[in-house]
Sequence to fold (120 residues):
Amino acid sequence: MTRFMNKTLHSYLDYPVALGLIAMPFLLGVGTGNPIALWLSVVTGVAALTLTVFTNHQFGLVKLIPYKLHLSVDFMVGVAFVAAPFVLGFAGLDAAYYWVLGATVLLVVALDNTTNVAAA
Fold:
């Protein structure tokens, strides 16, 4: 597998992704079946924004958190998002939203050229 994702490219994605996690559930109507689906995304978006501000990469403002730790957190979020519909009983749009996001996050982490991401 070609691993084309790198620290710089990842840093360009972090802020829009965090803001998307906050805004997209409102725009798409996520959470109509289960309000937890809406707020899980919003809270994760706020946490992702905070993580990005403190990550040691190009657009990190404080640069306290090592990039590999940031990737490990992203990996855990991806796993949690894939599992959320099963654990929290999401169905329909709510389930699809988390499965697509979770798979996307896991793919981005898998395509990162930093080695031993999950073990960081």
Q: What stands out?
A: Residues 7-110 form one domain.
